[in-house]
Structure formats: structure tokens, C-alpha cells
Amino acid sequence: QDAIDRKEKRSETFKTALHGLETDTPSLKTEELGRRAPQWVRDNLVTMCMRCKEPFNAITRRRHHCRACGYVVCARCSDYKAELQYDGNRLNRVCQECYVFLTGHVVLEDREGKHKGILEKEAADVSGRSLLCSSLQLLDKNGKGGTRGWFVIPQDDPLVLYIYAAPQDVRAHTSIPLLGYQVKDLPQGDSRHLFQLAQSRQVYTFMADTEELKQRWMRAMARSAAGITHPEDEDEDSCDE
């Protein structure tokens, strides 16, 4: 009976791990990341990095575990450190997605492999096939300064906001995954048209040139945050120069 029980338990664990691989979701709920120790995906259940999908090998691409979600990832995709509450807020190796969620830092695209292909395309080309694009300003934490650039939500990657330094740049320099964020309107003051993206401890504050442009961005970001990928019928001309 003990042998039967052990076999059934191993079978259930295997099925759970496979389900996690098929759905591409962490075993922990998003709000639990960093607060509870994850159940690690076993090394022998995967042959490739669960983030960038590159195959593992014994020499150049070894297996590592993200200490936040438990995924098996390569060294490049786990080259980040974040404080984990369940480990006394000590710094631990985490994957890029968990790093962004836990710290709120925007990852420079030079270190990001997943979206590298599209980011190397010219801004003008991506903007021509976008749900929305225009100039915006991303404010710093004190709201007094920040980065002005060209912001794009592409049709072929509608859940991510790409940030270019200028409309004709050949590649973007940062990105923000929009899924799961809340879009918040901020009171207008000193002719500044402000709104925010917020999720857990991450908050991004944007300033648009006009109230009408602000409302268009809030609507587009809210749709992406909710996982809606098709464009609105009214947004035939989605770019504002």
C-alpha cells in the first residue's frame, strides 16, 4: 500500500508539473510571488528554458531555478536579484518576469531575449501596425521629471508597451508588460494630463500632451491590461505625431 501511495503521489506531482508547463503559469499566484517559497519544477521535466525557450545543454546553457516562481531557467534569463519576503528579504536569483514584478524596474532590452526580435525593427514600421502610438512622458518617482519618448502598443504584441527614444529609432530601449495592471486617472493640475499604471508595488506615471490623447492611452492600456488583443473599431488612425 505504501508503494502504491508513493507511486500515486509521484504521478500527481508529475501531472501538476506538466500542467504548469502547458499553461505557462507559475505554481504560485501572482500576489504570492516572493511571499511564499515556490515548488520548484524538477530539472528532468524540462529540456529548455521556461522563459526564452532555448534548449539546455551541459556546457553553455545550464539549468537554474527562479527562487520566486520555481521555474527552470537559463543563466541569462535568471541573471537578476530581488528581495524575497519568505527568505527574510534577502536577495535571491530570480527570472526576469519575477524581477520586473517584484521590483518594478523596467528591464533594458539589451538584457532581454524574449522580445528582442521586434525591438530591433524600426519604430516607424512598428508604429504603422500599432493599436496606439504617440509621444508621452514617463515621469520619475517624484513626478517632477522623467523620460520623454515615443510609446507604441504593437498589433502583433498587443499586451506590451514599447518605449522608443524617438519615432524613427531602429529599436526600442525599454518595454512594460501591461497584462494585469490597473489604469488610474489623476486629477489635472498645471495643465498636466496625468495617468498611471499600477500593480502591487509597481507604479508608472505618464503625462500626455492633451486630455484627449490621455483618454485614448488610458482606454488602450486598460484593454491590453485586461488581455483584449483586437483593436477598437474607432482607432483606424492610431498614431499621433
Automatic annotation (TrEMBL):
Keywords: Cytoplasm, Cytoskeleton, Guanine-nucleotide releasing factor, Metal-binding, Phosphoprotein, Repeat, Zinc, Zinc-finger. Residues 112-226 form the PH domain. InterPro entries: FGD1-4_PH2 (IPR035941), FYVE_RhoGEF_PH (IPR051092), PH-like_dom_sf (IPR011993), PH_domain (IPR001849), Znf_FYVE (IPR000306), Znf_FYVE-rel (IPR017455), Znf_FYVE_PHD (IPR011011), Znf_RING/FYVE/PHD (IPR013083). One of its GO terms (biological process) is cytoskeleton organization. The keyword Repeat applies. Residues 43-103 form the FYVE-type domain. Pfam families: FYVE, PH. GO terms for molecular function: guanyl-nucleotide exchange factor activity; zinc ion binding. The keyword Cytoplasm applies. This is FGD2 protein. The lineage of its organism: Eukaryota, Metazoa, Chordata, Craniata, Vertebrata.
